[in-house]
Design brief:
Blueprint (H helix, E strand, L loop, with lengths): L2 H39 L4 H38 L2 H7 L4 H41 L9 E8 L2 E9 L4 E11 L2 E14 L4 E13 L2 E12 L20 H14 L4 H29 L7 H28 L4 H22 L3
Antiparallel strand pairs: 1-2, 2-3, 3-4, 4-5, 5-6
Helix pairs in contact: 1-2, 1-4, 2-4, 2-6, 2-7, 4-6, 5-6, 6-7, 6-8, 7-8
Length: about 350
């Protein structure tokens, strides 16, 4: 490590943390103005607002804005160095362009590790308190609006409910089927189903049970039945935000469970899992693009560099959103969808590095 390395790292990280701090302050101000009525109406304590909400709010938005502001920071201070002919002086002193990239990559790697740790370990924990605060003081209790819910609880066991109200813990038109060797062996249907939290049992109304054993068949009918079933009301409540409170290993286990259930949101969960690795890596890719673009002195000055940088960074974010949408609602693999933007822009970075003045 030489003075030049420390100089560039100091410029890089200083500009990054200063710019990200400014945007976080602006976001907090707008968020307060939007939610202040909810805080007053629901009598949210000041201590809970500061420590339970906004202290856990900051890591989430730092991680969200990191790739964009890493790129803006690189473009800004590198273009300023180029405008002051510092880049020319560095290259003329015998330092190669590749060697000059080393402190940039060290800084980018530091931010990449930071965002990876935030996304997979810090934010899931902080989101628990933030979302709990929002559920009490900001928004009403979540209501399940899904209809015609089909779920596989375990291999060979399927349940269906036409509608489920998690506020009253009741469902309509419930059916459970057990299939062995592709043959139906058990079927239970009822007009309605209700959860009893005291006994941990389900109450079925106007039920019908059909048991099949080879050529023998037994049918049972009744008005009311209290029974134990191998699931709880949480199985009917599909919350996409559940993934926000899971670390990487928990998310992997959750995806396996949702795949077994046949959840329609599995693609979304897989996209989220892969984003937690690819999104931090984008910091390195955008850093290389930023250095190669802003290291040359232009007549338009820093403003032209920043304008070009913003266009490319927003193009990257747009590319990421489009490919993620194709994975969530189409047939594109979540792994491929999440990594396509990085792959495309890494080739762009290599091309720009090759053509950059050395």
């Amino acid at each position: 490590m030489k003075k030049l390395d420390y100089y560039i790292i100091k410029k890089f990280l200083g500009t990054f943390f200063f710019s990200i701090s400014l945007i976080i302050i602006i976001v907090i101000v707008f968020d307060i103005s939007e939610k202040v009525d909810d805080f007053i109406e629901n009598q949210a304590p000041l201590r809970a607002i500061i420590f339970d909400y906004y202290f856990n709010f900051v890591p989430f938005f730092i991680n969200l804005f990191t790739p964009l502001f890493t790129y803006i920071a690189v473009v800004y201070f590198t273009a300023k160095m180029a405008a002051n002919t510092e880049i020319v002086a560095i290259l003329c002193s015998g330092v190669s362009f590749r060697r000059m990239l080393v402190p940039y990559l060290i800084s980018a790697l530091f931010i990449t590790i930071l965002t990876f740790c935030l996304a997979n370990f810090v934010i899931p924990h902080s989101n628990k308190e933030r979302l709990e605060f929002e559920s009490i003081y900001v928004r009403n209790r979540y209501r399940n609006t899904n209809r015609n819910i089909h779920i596989q609880t375990k291999p060979g066991e399927f349940i269906y409910v036409e509608s489920y109200n998690n506020e009253y813990e009741t469902g309509q038109r419930f059916t459970i089927e057990k299939i062995n060797n592709n043959v139906l062996s058990y079927k239970l249907s009822s007009e309605s189903i209700k959860w009893d939290s005291l006994t941990g049992k389900w109450q079925l109304n106007r039920y019908f049970i059909r048991e099949v054993n080879g050529l023998e068949e037994k049918i049972t009918r009744g008005e009311t039945l209290d029974t134990l079933l191998n699931f709880t009301p949480e199985i009917f409540v599909v919350k996409l935000k559940n993934v926000e409170v899971m670390n990487y290993s928990q998310l992997r286990k959750f995806i396996k469970t949702e795949t077994l259930k046949g959840s329609k949101n599995v693609a979304f969960y897989k996209v989220e899992k892969n984003k937690r690795i690819s999104f931090p890596f984008a910091t390195i890719v955008l850093t290389l693009i930023g250095v190669s673009l802003s290291s040359r002195k232009l007549r338009g000055g820093i403003g032209l560099h920043l304008a070009t940088g913003l266009i490319i960074s927003f193009a990257f974010i747009l590319f990421m959103q489009i490919s993620s949408t194709f994975a969530t609602y189409g047939n594109l693999s979540p792994l491929v969808a999440v990594w396509i933007p990085n792959i495309f822009f890494i080739f762009l970075a290599f091309y720009l590095l090759k053509t950059a003045p050395k």
